[in-house]
Amino acid sequence: MARTASPVGPAKPLDPGTEQIQADPAVADLLGVLRRHLAMDVAFLGRLDEQCLLLQVFDGDPAAFGLAPGSTVRRHAALYPTALAHDAPIVIPDTQADRRTAQAPIVQGLGIGSYAAALVYDNDDEVYGLVGCLGRQPRPHLRPRDGQFVDLLAAFLRDAVIDLRRVWESRSHLSRIISDLIDDGGPQIVFQPVVSLADGSIAGVEALSRFPDSHRDPEGWFKVAAQVGLGTELELAAIRHALTALPGLPPSVALSLNAAPATIASGLLGLLRSFGACDRVIVEITEHEYFSTDPVVMRDIQALRSLGTRIAVDDTGTGYAGLEQLIQLRPEIVKLDYLITHLMDVDPARRAVAAAIVSVAREIGGQVIAEGIESTAELRTATEIGIGFGQGYLLGRPARTLRAACSPTPGLFRPDPAPAPAR
User: Fold this and answer.
1) Does the structure show a pLDDT above 60 at 419?
2) Dist CA 252 CA 99 (whole Å)
3) Which GO molecular-function terms appear in the entry (predicted)?
4) How far apart are CA 75 and CA 418, in angstroms?
């Protein structure tokens, strides 16, 4: 998460609704002009409210100061009150030598050696926020007249802050909605069966999130949650909700849970342990970031495996990254993406890719689940090339109850009739 600059040292977590504010690229370009003109390390634009300065856009390396888009600085701890005292911009070439800032805790806490800032107004001539620059070291070349350049740039930002305000209000609204959803126990959970293609028995159910009364699909909800810093929390809430169904699940049926690498590294192991569920679940890793290079994620994946959890990877076959993760992770379960499964009965290329994935899975000791089986021809092809398990509307739609999800679809797996006796 982004961090709040403390007057005395380490930053504390910020309300996730304030993270990752997006702006017109022109804003960042203007900040770049300012930073280079003043020869400083970071330029910023922030929005002021009654409590703090919310830092929205940067140019340079804000991490060098322990900052990120969405960080806040409390009013009483900040350097900017001196800028608010009058309309003129402020330029401080050496924060340690200037009596206004020498004792400011934030100077020590963030390591600020030089500072320049000016107020930004909106089109109603109301103060929107602050634009400025930070330097790690003193900048003796700075002169009071450099403040006029900061002020000039602040005037150019007048129109841009209207869009920033609109984005901020939208993100704040979405953050409140998602926070309320998490507080209410997370999204609704439905269960889609995973079927053995050998005999039609139910081998598992995948827990899927549903968000009622919304035009967004589930993936869209999790994307928005990630944008306001609540993606992991929302995903953990969905997993927690799904795990409450475990007592009603037949012992022979596994529960498949979707988790991004960040969720795996943010307490998933402890959550599964609290439900006594490690050996009853499959953790399906979503998102195709290069998590195999993240030691924390890989450590927790191995810890899950040591407790009996099986690991699955999804969307296999749709890109180089997915294949690389398959080789690096060697999951127990490989999920063949719908884009490959769909029409593979009539498309030799899709069929060839599916067969290759089956071969790779066999070599690493894994099993394959074909997603998106929607026709008997696709089902037949999946069986012919050696895919052991399937998912899709033909085999079973997502159901609100485990009982419905664990009821095999009749008629699909009838045994072949015995040949007629010879006459």
Assistant:
1) no
2) 72
3) cyclic-guanylate-specific phosphodiesterase activity
4) 83
- Residue (of 422, 412, 393) closest to 192 by Cα position: 393
* CATH code of the domain made up of 185-405: 3.20.20.450
Each residue's pLDDT tens digit, 31-83: 999 999 999 999 999 888 777 888 888 999 998 998 888 788 876 666 665 55
In the predicted model, what is the mean pLDDT of residues 290-298?
A: 77
What's the pTM value of the predicted model, to 2 decimals? 0.65
User: Is 407's pLDDT higher than 60?
Assistant: yes
**Strands, E assignment, 110-266:** 114-121, 127-135, 188-196, 202-210, 254-259
Alpha carbons 224 and 17: distance in angstroms, whole number: 11
Q: Are 297 and 265 in contact (CB under 8 A)?
A: yes
Domain boundaries, the chain: 3-167, 185-405
373: which 2 tokens? Answer: 């089986």
d(CA 56, CA 71): 8
Exposed/middle/buried for 362, CB within 10 Å: 0-12, 13-18, 19+? middle
End-to-end CA distance of the chain: 78
Q: Which residues pair with 212 in a beta bridge?
A: none
Express each pLDDT in 213-230 by its tens digit: 666 788 888 888 887 778
May I ask the CATH class of domain 3-167? alpha beta
Helix (H) or strand (E) holding 311: strand 310-316
Helix axes 218-227, 231-243, angle to 10 degrees: 130
Q: Would the pLDDT of 208 be above 90?
A: yes
Give the span between the Cα atoms of 283 and 300, in whole angstroms. Answer: 12
Say how many C-beta atoms besides its own lie within 10 A of residue 53's C-beta: 25
